[in-house]
Amino acid sequence: MEQDTDLVWYVAYGSNMAIVRLRYYLLGGRPLGGLRTYDGARSPSEPLRSRPVTLSGGVVFAGHSLTWSGGIAFYDPGASGTVAARAYLLELGQVKDLVAQETRRPPGIDLDLLAPEPNGSRPLGGRAYDVALRHDDIDGYPAVSILASQSPRPTRPSRSYLLWICRGLRETYDWSPREVADYLRRFPGVRETWSAEDLIDLASLAEQDD
Fold first, then answer.
1. Contact at 8 Å (CB) between 182 and 31?
2. Please, what is the Cα angle at 62 between 59 and 64, to 5 degrees?
């Protein structure tokens, strides 16, 4: 049985790269631009640490989020390329509650998140995100992301959702608006529906949003 006092790296590659966005899963409340109010985690403590992480694979923006009214980010470990991500060191119970809310379940349920070995996965059920993927350990602690078991059809992400991702990329990597735009336009769902100029403007807005 996993102990809730254990520590786990939660590896975010979408809007949760922004620490303010992540805090809504820990503290509860409704993020700016979102249409959903979160319950928060059993422990509202801040992450013990955070750090940039690079994942092998790609991202697709797909589906239709009822929270964001557009496509959301899904990690595809089988794609070519690399993904910019941010890892947060949290209590296991916090990660379980975060994932429960991501999969539209109440916090406090006992999710089995960690495969025995890196590169293994656990089914989660849920809607959009239904798999927990274990990465290589970081500093001796297990690391996990959530993703979809099926490849969803690319769709346009909303402005409010991308604004959080832009903010997270700025916080994590200190990228310029042009670097943020160039990165996001690599991925299906964004490159067909967002111009480089509009993404630069959005990333510039995120850069000012402290």
1. no
2. 145
| Residue whose token pair is 């390329």 | 81
**Each residue of 82-112: pLDDT tens digit?**
999 999 999 999 999 999 999 999 999 999 9
Residue with the bigger pLDDT between 54 and 209: it is 54
Nearest to 113 by CA among 82, 147, 140: 147
**Whether the Cβ atoms of residue 201 and residue 159 lie closer than 8 Å to each other:** no
Bridge partners for 83 per DSSP: 55
Does pLDDT of 126 surpass 90? no
Q: Where are the beta strands (DSSP E) in the chain?
A: 7-12, 49-56, 58-65, 70-76, 82-91, 121-123, 131-138, 141-147
Helix axes 196-208, 159-173, angle to 10 degrees: 60
Can you read off the two tokens belonging to residue 204? Answer: 């510039």
Q: What is the DSSP letter of 187?
A: S
Strand partners, 88: 10, 50
User: Between the CA of residue 165 and those of 68, 123, 142, what are the distances in Å?
Assistant: 12, 26, 24
Token representation of residue 154: 């690319």
d(CA 124, CA 129): 8
Strands 70-76 and 82-91, by their bridges, are unpaired
